[in-house]
Write a structure and sequence with these properties.
mainly alpha
């Protein structure tokens, strides 16, 4: 079974897996995967508008409602 998988190229020899270029490639793939997951989660989250949390400059100092206590 191992020779069949090895001849199909599914398993790599141990010398290739333990080489420096393979380690660099594995690190790149790992970092790329983490970034991709972070971007996907960020895109799935609701959009945040920072202006909603800042004080507004155009707010009135007094209410002009027909309900002066501001209950509605």
């Amino acid at each position: 079974m191992t020779t069949l998988l090895s001849s199909l190229g599914i398993l790599f020899p141990e010398t290739l897996v333990r080489s420096q270029p393979f380690a660099i490639l594995a690190a790149f793939v790992a970092i790329n995967t983490v970034i991709y997951v972070a971007l996907t989660v960020a895109k799935a989250m609701p959009k945040i508008y920072f202006g909603d949390y800042l004080p507004r400059k155009y707010e009135r100092s007094e209410t002009r409602s027909i309900h002066p206590d501001g209950s509605r």
